[in-house]
Design brief:
The protein is an alpha/beta fold. It folds into 2 domains: 345 residues, Luciferase-like domain (TIM Barrel, Alpha-Beta Barrel), CATH 3.20.20; 89 residues, no CATH class. The protein is built from 17 helices and 14 strands. The strands form 4 sheets. It has an 8-stranded parallel barrel, surrounded by 4 helices. Helix 8 packs across helix 9. Bound molecules: flavin mononucleotide.
Amino acid sequence: MTGPTVLRFGVFFQGVNFSTVWTEPESGSQTDFESFRRVAQTAERGLFSAFFLGEGLRLREHLGALHQLDVAGRPDAQTQLAALAAVTERIGLVATQNTTYNDPLDLAHRLASLDLLSGGRAAWNVVTTDNAWTGENFRRGGYLDHADRYRHAEAVVVATKKLWDTWDAEIAASAAADAWTADTPSELVEVDTGHYRATGRSRLPQSPQGRPVIFQAGDSAEGRDFAARQADVIFSAHSAFDDAKAFADDIRQRTLKAGRPAGDVKIFPGQEFILADTDAEAEEKARWVRRKQVTPQTAIAFLENIWGTDLSAYDPDGPLPEIDPVQEVSGETRGAGFRAAQAKATADAWRERAAAESLSIRELVIRLNSGCGFVGSPSSVAATLQRYADAHVVDGFNITPWLIPSGLDDIVDTLVPLLQERGIYPTEYARDTLRENLGLASVGRTQEARRTA
Ligand SMILES: Cc1cc2nc3c(=O)[nH]c(=O)nc-3n(C[C@H](O)[C@H](O)[C@H](O)COP(=O)(O)O)c2cc1C
């Protein structure tokens, strides 16, 4: 590979969770369209590749109450992105949609609709969803185990791509309504996942990017192999340099093994940026942000994930509980960071650290959540990003703003120009579609055929 990677940015609008600060005077609403519009248009001003929404189909419950650390107030991604398509022109629109509970043919149609509506800017972030309680929304009588979920997911994605690809490009290009029915424009596709069986055909022509871009999020060996075979982009949780490098090496090997060129799957870790005029000011700001993120209640809820019991009687400014967790391994409703953690060992390690550094519960939780994110002046953070670009360990970052809706302003106004000066960030949108703007190979016939037509 010659020269540094040209990095790209996405923005992950998260909704209510503990990493976004919703209590400041500048904080907007997590549901008003204005917040989404402002973030998406700022991102587009900064030439971001993608605006990204997660999916949470049920509010997480913990100890009989709604879980304090979980995401709430999140509108349906496809509806939200369809509205954003109307007020943006170039930015990609990424909808997280799980394969376990969505019906594939219906999902394919809705994503194709978003792709068409947005002029070829849609992407599907494929997740499998890791919890049984979400299944309670769907009357399916439980949910699939881990390996089955990925087998099912792959069959769904393969069938969906086939469905999208079978629309006859010539008929699509004619765009004449009667031509759609005079001929059979699409083939009948069978989906058979072992758990689900259906047949159907595409009802829509392809968008200018051929079909929606496929993102993937899911970190197990099965998840990574699935991405290596099927995805265009991975949304990863590996942003620290060494971790990002190890992850990229692993994915490239898996991609080669899947018979694709090593760099075919782009990697975008989620990442928080905290900027200020100087490094010292940024460090101070980061300390302030952490205290806003980790409220006294958040600190207790964080510990309850591991202890598995009500700790509300404990003082967040006091020492860690002396009682042991009531569970060996943390359960499934505890959130991704805690799932299957060795509860007793984790509690012991946290107590040891708190004692050694004289930390209260809240201070410990703040420490546990510090150290991630890029903190510094724009020029320092630009230098950090140059290191990633030179070493080719990521293709970009999916930025998680700690403040909505103004959290991207300083990134766009101060960091992006410095990255452009360094030649490691785009200076314009290359083309109109997300696939092209991410530098992905074209798919199907439509994209090229249309360009030369
Ligand atoms: C970065 C990242 C983002 C994710 N976002 C979502 C999401 O928005 N909605 C969801 O239901 N699951 C989400 N997941 C969870 C995946 O659906 C998957 O169930 C989980 O990671 C377990 O699979 P794994 O064992 O392969 O990691 C996400 C996972 C990762 C790593």
